[in-house]
Amino acid sequence: MLHKFYSLFLVSLLGLMFIGCTPEPVPVGEGSKISGTITYDRVPSKVDAYGLVKLDYANTQKATAKYVVVKALDENGQTLAETTTDANGEYVVYVPKDTDVKIRVYARMFKKDTWDLSVVDNTNLKAMYVIEGELHNSGDGSSKRNLNATSGWDGQSYSGSRDAAPFAILDSINTIMQKVVKANPNVTFPHLLVNWSPNNVAAGGDKSLGQIVTSNYDGNNNLWILGDADSDTDEYDDHIIIHEWSHFFEDKFSRSDSIGGPHSSGDALDIRVAFGEGFGNAMSAIATDDPIYFDTSGPQQSSGWFMNIENAPAENPGWFSEASIQRILYDLYDSNSDGSDNISLGFKPLYNIMVNKERNAQAFTSIFTFINALKNENSSQQSAIDRVVSSENINTINDDYGNYRTNLAQGVYKTPVYRTLELNHWVTQCNQNNFGVYNKLGNRTFLKLHIDTPNIYTISAKPYGGEYGDPDIVLYKAEYPFDSMGMSPLEGVSSDELTINLNKGDYVAEVYDASFNNSCFVIDLQKNATNMKQSKQTLKPTRPRKPKRMPQE
Predict the structure, then answer these.
(1) What does the DSSP 8-state code read for residue 533?
(2) Is the peptide bond before 547 cis (omega within 30 degrees of 0)?
(3) What is the pLDDT, as a whole number, of residue 8?
C-alpha cells in the first residue's frame, strides 16, 4: 500500500557516519519484508513560441531515484535495516515483525568502493536532504512502501517543499557516471559533495548564505548548484549539472589547466579555457545523447536560453573557441553523419584519451593536446578526425603545441601559439586585449623551455617599447600534475624575474601583463654564474584556477 511521507527535511552528515554499521539483517522468513520504489518529480523543459526555454511543469513525470540510500527506522529513530535502490529505483529490506517502522530516503548515491555523493544544504550547516514516510506496523508478512519526492510546484509558484530537487541533481549526475562506468567498469569515483539550496543565488559573497555566483565546481570536491526560484534554478537543468560534474571529472581523472573566468560561445579564448568549457558542454550532450543544451531561468523558470551543441551557427570558429571544441567532440562521439562528420567513435576512445594522454600531456591542455593524442591512438581514423576538426576552421593538428596555425582569429592574433625560450636567447612578447582581458586569446604568451643541466636559472621580462605594463611569469614542469613551480615576485613594476632551481627536463611558462595593457616585453633565460642556493625570495602564489561556468551569450 502507498504510505504518505513528510516533506523534505535535513539530517546532519554526522549521523551518516554510521552507514554500514547497522544491525545484522533479519533473515528471510523470520521477519517482515518491506519493498517499494523511490521516485521523484522530474520537470522537463520546452522551448516556447518566443524561443525561450522554460520548465514544463504541466508535463512533470515521476522518475526513479537510482542507487540512493534507504533506511528502515523504528519509532526511536534507530536503524533496523538499510540498503540502496537499484537501477530501477527499487529497494527491499527485512525488519522485525509487528514493529512500527518508517522508511527514510537520503539524497545520497552510495555504492561501496565505487561512488559516494550527497546533496546537502550549504545554507544549513551542510545538512543532507532526506524524505521519509510515516510509522506503520510491519506486520508479519510483506508490504509495499513507495515514496515520491514532489517538486513543490502548485501551478504558479513553489509553495511547497522542493523535495525532488536533490534527487533530480543526483539523477543527472548518475547519467554521466553511468557513461563513464560503461567505458571503464572498474572505475572508482572520488567522494563528491553537491551543495544545493533554494537560497543559492547568482551573487558573490558568503557561500553559507547561498551567495555562490553561479553553478560551478570549486576544485575541492564540491559542486555548487543554483536554486533561486524566479531568478535562476539549475536542479532540472541536466546539461548544466553534467557540465559542472565534467570539471570534477577533469580534476580527478584527467587534467584541466583552465584559468576559469567569463566566457561565451563567440569568444576567442585562452586555449585552456576554450577546451575546458567546450569539453564540459560536449560531455553534457554525450551523457544525455541530446545536443540541446539549456539553462532555465527567470520568473516561473520560463525565460531561459538554449543552444545546439552539434550544429549551432559558428561564431568566430577556431582552436580558441569553446563552441568549436564542443561541436568537434560531440561529432567525434555521435552516430549522426552530417557534412564533414562521418565518424562515430563513441565515448570510450574519448574517455581513454582524457584519463591517459591528456592527463600526461607536456603542453597546456587544449584542443591540440586532445586531438593529437586521439589521432595517435586511432590511426585508422586520422583522416576522418581531421575532417571534423577542419570544419571549424582549424587546420591539421599534428602536435601538442598548435604549430602551423592559419586561423588567426580574424587576423588579430599572431602565431606561434608557443614560443621557444632558449638559454642565453631572448624573445619578444606582446599582450593583446582585443578580445577582452584575463582569459581571452592573446592575454598570455606560452613558452617552451628545455633544460639540459641542473642549475639555478633566471627568467626575466623587461619592457620593450610601447606601453609599460606589469609582467608576471609563471613556470610549470611539463608533466602531471602540471602544477606551477613558482611565480615572479614583484607587483606593480615594469620588469620582473623568476629565479629558480631547475633540474634537467622540459618546462612551459606563461607570461602576461597583470594590468592587461597592450604591452610588450623582452623575455630571456639565463643560467646563474654559480650553482649557489636559490635566493630566499618569496614567490607570490598563482592566481585562482577554478573552472567556472558562466552564462553563454
Answers:
(1) P
(2) no
(3) 58
